[in-house]
C-alpha cells in the first residue's frame, strides 16, 4: 500500500470537488435546456386495447372514405341514368 502525502490528499480533494462541480453544472444546464425545449416524455408501452382502438380507427376512416366515394360515384351514375331515361341524353 502506498503512503499518501498531504499533497496527494489535497489533489484528491481538489479532483473530487471539480467532479462534484461538473455534475452540478451538468444538472443545471440539463434543467435549463429541459425548461426551454420541453422535457422528453417518457415512452409508455402500448397495451392491447390501445392497438385495438388504433386499428379500429383506421378501419373506420377507410370505411368512411369508401362510403363517400360510393355516394359520389353513385350520384353520378344515377344522374346519367335519369338524364338518359328522361331526355335521351348521353
Overall structural class, as computed from helix and strand content, comes to mainly alpha
Helix content: over 70%
How many β strands by DSSP? 0
Unreliable segments of 5+ consecutive residues: none
- Major sheet description: none
Number of helices: 2
Question: Nearest-angstrom radius of gyration?
Answer: 36 Å
Shape: rod-shaped
Q: How many angstroms separate the termini?
A: 106 Å
Per DSSP, what share of the residues sits in E-state strands of 2 or more residues? under 5%
Mean pLDDT: 86
User: How many domains, as an integer?
Assistant: 2
Order of helices and strands: HH
How would you sum up this structure, described in words?
- The model has no long low-confidence stretch (mean pLDDT 86).
- The termini are far apart.
- The protein has two domains: 1-43; 44-90.
- With 90 residues, it is mainly α.
- It has helices at residues 6-37, 48-87.
- The chain has two helices and no strands.
